[in-house]
Structures are given as C-alpha cells and as structure tokens.
Amino acid sequence: NESWIENFQNFLVKDTALSRMTANKxxxxxxxxxxKAVRDNLILKNPALTVKGxxxxxxxxxxxxxxxxxxxxxxxxxxxLGAEVRKGFLFCCFTGLRVSDIKTLxxxxxxxxxxxxxxxxxxxxxxxxxxxxxxxxxxxxxxTIHKLTELVFPLIGTTGTNTNQYLGPWAExxxxxxxxxxxxxxxxxxxxxxxHGADFFTVSKLLGHTKTATTAVYTKATDKLKxxxxxxxxxxx
Length: 237
Hints:
The protein is mostly helical and 237 residues long.
C-alpha cells in the first residue's frame, strides 16, 4: 500500500549509504514492477501512483565550447586506441551519438551518397538520421573501400579497456578545464546545435529523443541563448 511505498523510500534515503540518484532508481524499479503487476491482474491499482517520488538534485550537463573543441582537436592521444578514442570523441561532438552507438557503428550505417548516418540506437532501439557535416565526415573518411559489416571504430568497438581513462588527461593537455566523459560529446552536440539556431524539434530528432522536453534541458547549459534572450528585451529611455 501507499504507506509501504513511503516507508521504503524513506529507508532508501535515510538508512542506506545510497545517493539520492541511486535511491530514486531503486524506487523507480519498484514502481515499474507494480505497474506490471497491475497489467498482469495481480493487483487492482498501483499504490505508488499517489506517493511522491524521491527528489533528485539536478545534475550539471557539461558541454564544450567551439574553442575547447578546437583545442582538443589540436592535441593527439598516444597509441592506436588513444588515436581512435580522440577521433571517436570528436565525431560524437558533431553527430551526438552515444559511445554505445560508436562501438557498434558500421559502414553500412553511413549513407555516402547523401553523407548521412542512419543508426539504430543501442539504448532505445529507435533509428536516428544524422547528416554528416564536413567535420564529421573528414574524421572517418580514409578514402578506403570498406566492407559494410566493418566497424567504423574497430578498436573502440572491440577493446575491453575503459576508454574514458583517455579523456581526462587529453582534456588537461589541451587546456580544457572541465571533467569530460563520452556523454560530454553528446551534450556538446545538443547545446551547440541549439546555439546555432536549430529548434528543439530538430535537435530532438537528431538525438533520438521522443520528447522535446528532454531536449529543452540543454538550454539551461548554454549562456549564449540566455544572453540573446535578455539582449532582445526592449530598451527604455
């Protein structure tokens, strides 16, 4: 019942060492199980529907500026895997792909006649269609004929190494004073496309979001849109 749900959530927050983010995930799992129980006619209603969920503090979405991307592009990473991580990360900055999609990206996903990427996302199972601009295409174009089944980033796709370990030292050497991970590239793509005039709907489709509200959170990260909005206010004599 509702009381059990409330007590369980309080237990997660107060009596465990879990972060609120993790506690919320456990509580959400219970809600999903109860929803399934309703669908399977095991219970008449989900008691969690009337119970407020665990509030989670907003996390900062780190993204790179154009200058910071340029700095990274000028700094190499040693080793074959390191070089491919550098190339893959920059490719994500211009396509918005997740690292899970980079790992499984094949040349069959690249439509060369239109320079477009058609990729079924690993996370959602939905297709995204992303035009490749000159920056993205130049990163993977080696003027070689590849088999369609061949991975575009073969080392990233097959390595057992945690490739995130390359990103921090790379950023430090490039003079980028931000803690970056693979998802930073996706945040960068979303933020910069919005800053350069793309609307929420378009960016949502490029990212594979099902709701524009999911995309709208990226506007909180960009100062440029805020500055333009404030500067558009009328002058007063």
